[in-house]
Amino acid sequence: MSQHTQALTGFLADLNYAQLPEAVISRTEDLFLDWLGSALASQGAHPIPLFERYAAMMGPASGPAGVLVNGTTSSAYFAALVNGASSHLVEQDDLHNSSVLHPATVVFPAVLAGAQDLGKTGRELILAAVAGYEAGIRIGEFLGRSHYRTFHTTATVGTLAAAVGVGKLMDFNQEQFTNLLGSAGTQAAGLWEFLRDAADSKQLHTAKAAADGLLAAYLTAEGLSGARNILEGEQGMAAGMSSDANPACLSDGLGRRWALTETSFKFHASCRHTHPAADALLDLMQREHLRAEDIARVTTRVHQGAIDVLGRVLVPQSVHQAKFSMGTVLGLIAVYGKAGLPEFQQHALTDPRISEFRDKVHMVLDDEVDSAYPQRWLGRVEVTTVQGRTVHGRIDEPKGDPGNTLTRDELEDKFRRLLAFSGARNDEQASGLVELVWHLRHLDDLSMLTRTGSSS
Amino acid sequence: MSQHTQALTGFLADLNYAQLPEAVISRTEDLFLDWLGSALASQGAHPIPLFERYAAMMGPASGPAGVLVNGTTSSAYFAALVNGASSHLVEQDDLHNSSVLHPATVVFPAVLAGAQDLGKTGRELILAAVAGYEAGIRIGEFLGRSHYRTFHTTATVGTLAAAVGVGKLMDFNQEQFTNLLGSAGTQAAGLWEFLRDAADSKQLHTAKAAADGLLAAYLTAEGLSGARNILEGEQGMAAGMSSDANPACLSDGLGRRWALTETSFKFHASCRHTHPAADALLDLMQREHLRAEDIARVTTRVHQGAIDVLGRVLVPQSVHQAKFSMGTVLGLIAVYGKAGLPEFQQHALTDPRISEFRDKVHMVLDDEVDSAYPQRWLGRVEVTTVQGRTVHGRIDEPKGDPGNTLTRDELEDKFRRLLAFSGARNDEQASGLVELVWHLRHLDDLSMLTRTGSSS
């Protein structure tokens, strides 16, 4: 095992709450609220009820952990599974840029279910989440761009991130974290192939990453051993699933660089790969006073990862797939000025102006954008007007990125819009939840977070 | 999607009991008994109780499906999980050579748990198992040797084999089988890295393959969609996890070639990669009247896969790891004339004659053996005696292979020895189980198969 893996497991074992800067603690609360909203926003939407029925069939009738979308309880495993499925569906959860990992949707379902099961406090939940984020982000960076080309990093690396979070709840020592990474890493799975068919696997991926990570932690606590070098070993994750792995990423700035604070909140309700172009187009249209009908052609200059993920979606067949259609997203921006959940739900597939605009949009690989990626997600669009004029839009930090982040007011607003969208909670309940989350570090009883109406 | 995947899913949907040759039906009964013995033999052995405790913690207090090693019941998911963990531990379960897949340990836990849950008959169980074997073996062959180099095929492909079995129980049509492969394939995981540490992941792998496959089938039945081309697609299994995939394997001889009948029963209680050399050495020693102390050096000429899997185990640290030590296995053969469970348990780590012999054993890559593999597993050993004489041993079909298979009497005998080893069932109970399995095709109620003492 290299010094890098060793440094990582040592850091995870030693990490304690007193060590966390205030900015990390409050950002964890921000991220938790953002995650909670994302999960509740999917209530009732396909395929979430399938996971609810599966949990009811295979799990206990009730248990210590709460299922957000239906207010039932179950064992920690099934709560993590259903909450993991729920929180990625509306594509409003956070993203860490350079790892291309969505940490919240895998870390929070696992640590919340584990914390409720184990009777842990808000502080312990925060510490566990930080551990999951710090490890997951570094492992994502370690596996690199070649991994992301075929594997859905949030699924694969997510399994380890979730596992680490639950391991931290259980106060694992370094030896246990070593075994834990082994048992989580050897379960890591998730392929991008589903995307071109608009299949439901993204929800399966996040559900399983959260639940499998939790399973790895509980079995490690019982004494299950795992491969000691699952990340870097000759038959480990990098060997099997990456061609550009960089071990130094695993220990990068541990305890000094808080990767959790580098995460981006999603402003638009679409795949993050569309956001730089969406912001650049919005900015350009406002600056040049352009309307959708003024535009004849849009060329977005993007990184290769955007082409890999979005390039297959030509004519979206579902609302979910529309979030991976660059043309559809830019169409909503151009026609409606925003690409939120209601715009997707009501217009993405049905408004002829959107499909018309979609056909005007083209992606091309841009060297500058591509070399900045994944550290920075640059937005570059080139618009040709119907009058034949060519204008350029550019943003260097999309809305929601660390340098252009959302305030607590904006996060609250987003949270309320997400809950209103699905009707999962009424206004009063939403206020109660916001109140709880802004006091997360002081909560002794975490059961209220998942009990419907408990806070009203 | 290619014609090959399409042919496979079409075959799976159309497959019916009337189509199965008698040899396939009776061989499935043979394989089922062999699997049942393997699972029961691990009762009480680490790490199986960890999985039992996990199932008790996360699952319902009781349910329609039986857990073999402790006689409790649970939901189908947890029964598949614990039975999947149990049946690979003693390394006595079957193997299909050219796919390097151990089908029983992933297919039977899933289809038995599913069949008990769904109230299916013995005939339906047999049909489901055949579907799982036929699909799993072909998918293993499709992914090829490059996959097996890093990935534990029984874990990865096992997830799909288990899923197909349960899908057949549910009488899936072709469209459902397509979705099922997508949801199973995107969960496929399992790396060989654990082996060099003698870690417990092999049990985790088979447990999760069986349980995840079952999960995929239940969610598909509920309506979850999956990638339509998970095997061959540009971001599918072959793209991410193989460099020598051959799509033609997927449809090879469907309905004419019954791959299930090509499986090998294990005679020695060790990794199958050691068996050709073990049989060749045993044959040579008998022919030349050699005793262990007459031997100064053994060179086994092997295929690359044997070196990949066994090459890392120098001094075994556990009984389980000793099964992957070529020197230890040949030592037991030389000193005790056999390498069964009692020999491993009592002598593999403690008898100084075994460790002494181990150091005399060397593996070298052999071109003839390597090119025959994985279709044929040739055994070639070169022994130098203490007197300086060099003699050669060779076998072309290890004991248990289709052309050198075990009779029903030998299978019964093996079954009784496995049960006696762990004490999981007494003699009378063993006889009852044998009786049940030889009538598997006529059973209406499968609950008796897992109920302790029910048959006595």
UniProtKB/TrEMBL annotation, chains A, B:
Domain MmgE/PrpD N-terminal: 7-247
Gene3D superfamilies given in the database record: 2-methylcitrate dehydratase PrpD
Domain MmgE/PrpD C-terminal residue range list: 268-439
SUPFAM superfamilies in the cross-refs: 2-methylcitrate dehydratase PrpD
Domain of life: Bacteria
Assigned protein family: Belongs to the PrpD family.
Name the UniProt record assigns to this protein: MmgE/PrpD family protein
Species this protein is from: Pseudomonas kulmbachensis
